[in-house]
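Technical note accompanying the year-one report. For the benefit of new consortium partners, we illustrate the data format agreed upon in the data management plan: each record pairs a sequence with a structure-token string. No post-processing was applied to the example shown here.
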Amino acid sequence: MDIHGTCDPKFEKVKTLFEENFAERDDVGASVAVSVEGEYVVDLWAGFRDRAKTLPWEEDTIVNVYSTTKTMAAITALLLADRGELDFYAPVKKYWPEYAQNGKENTEVRHFMSHSAGLSGMDEPMVGDDVYDWEKMVDALARQAPWWEPGTASGYHALTQGHLIGEVVRRITGRSIGQFFKEEIAEPLGADFHIGTGPEHYHRIGELVPPDSASPAADADEDSIAARTFKNPAVNANASGTDGWRQAEIPAANGHGNARSVVRVQTLVANLGTAFGKRLMSEAGCRVIFDEQSNGKDLVLGVPIRFGMGYGLTSDEMPMGPNENIAYWGGWGGSTAVIDQDARMCVSYVMNLMEANLMGDVRGFKLLRAAYRSL
């Protein structure tokens, strides 16, 4: 397998493990990137962007990264909070008055950021292209009663979190979250990441290779919160290749990018407000991600998770590295974003061969461990 890109000799272990992912773990096409103190030390890609292995994964290949997109929605809200335009501890109704109904009058914005708002799924059926209709989604969420008391526990808001955060962003800025993210974060940093991906990019989008089960949590008890979460709105990996999915703004699930662009953005919080020579946030604004909001068994994922402000946080049950201040999240299929403020390091792995596990897989974890050994 030919490995393309650049790698600091000190991080050769990462390159070696990246090669092993193809030789031993059947990767089809993938990219890995690492930044330390605001600059790349690893930026590699290899393999093929299609299932048939006829089209090479190029430097500018992008793919749907599913829930790694959530880190982009989170950093958008963090930027607004850093500017003083958003208070995470304010009630949602301050920004979105219509939300204050059906038992949600006291829900705070921080509950959106930590998956503890009680709206991990939806009661009103969302079928066909409904999930691409922003107004339909947010109006239904505003009407719905929470499935548990907001703030008392986390329950992974697999698809709804992006709409909840995104509507607050829209009410404050007058811009959709995809537009605001593009203009205020992606373009200033030169990051090739998109929440809502136009036809001009189709020629370089990699084809995802879905797992055997094209829908997450397929084996969950049908009456459980987990099953209800993934049943409505339903998520099917085969939709990722459609125009509707690509062009819609689904800030929890349909971001398109690669490891380079994920790191390009998330280095901003890893390096305390500066990335690649640009300062967009204050140090204090970046440290907010470690403001713990929940810590316990997640009602949807069924495993113990610490949630900070928009990110999962390293813990004894879910250790992500040797340092205290590590935040992370990943996407269905295996993409990852790990932010270590103590080491000023950011690591991302993005691929097109999807694994069924919602909580990451061995390919990304081995690359992360190699980055720490190199560091």
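Partners are asked to follow this layout when depositing records. The domain at 57-359 is CATH 3.40.710.10 (Beta-lactamase).
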